[in-house]
Design a protein that fits this description.
Blueprint (H helix, E strand, L loop, with lengths): L13 H11 L3 H46 L4 H18 L7 H4 E5 L5 H4 L5 E11 L13 E11 L8
Antiparallel strand pairs: 1-2, 2-3
């Protein structure tokens, strides 16, 4: 030690050398943090947003299929049932933030028990409801074909018409 400063074996002051080296790197930590933050955090945030959008659409489609099936089998007629199923599916999808639901293209109701059960709601028959929705990925421009980029999400639900209900 010379005059209170650390020295190496040749009498050079170590503290001054370290301070001089640190002074040459002043401000580099901020630049490194910003560059790494942009390179790593921005894609990570986008992947999280895309995943959450897809998950919301998945929850919405599942709930829409279930509620549409329940609304259909409790209706007094098949015509009224389709209207109720459409309303129930639209409401369930809207709750999850999925806009633009077209019942004629994205909702199908078929009968698994026979040809006539979907028209007449025969007690004990099984109805299958299928809902298809396109989950649009956030922040991406339209593709070359003019439609937003997205992922198709679908769900199906089987519902049985109450066996104790009178035939309709």
């Amino acid at each position: 030690m010379v005059n209170g400063a650390m020295t190496d074996g040749a009498g050079n002051r170590i503290a001054d050398d370290a301070r001089d080296a640190a002074a040459g790197e002043a401000g580099n930590a901020i630049v490194e943090f910003l560059v790494l933050g942009l390179l790593l955090l921005v894609p990570l945030v986008y992947v999280m947003l895309a995943g959450l959008t897809l998950q919301a659409a998945s929850y919405g489609v599942t709930a829409a299929a279930r509620e549409a099936g329940r609304a259909f089998v409790t209706a007094p007629s098949a015509e009224a049932g389709f209207g109720r199923a459409c309303s129930a599916a639209s409401l369930a999808l809207n709750d999850e933030g999925v806009p633009h639901f077209d019942c004629t293209r994205q909702l199908s109701i078929t009968c698994l028990s026979g040809d006539d059960c979907a028209r007449n709601l025969v007690p004990g028959s099984t109805i299958r409801v299928v809902v298809h929705v396109r989950a649009e990925l956030p922040g991406l421009p339209a593709s070359l074909f003019g439609t937003p980029l997205g992922i198709e999400v679908s769900a199906r639900h089987d519902e049985v018409v109450d066996i104790f209900a009178e035939p309709r």
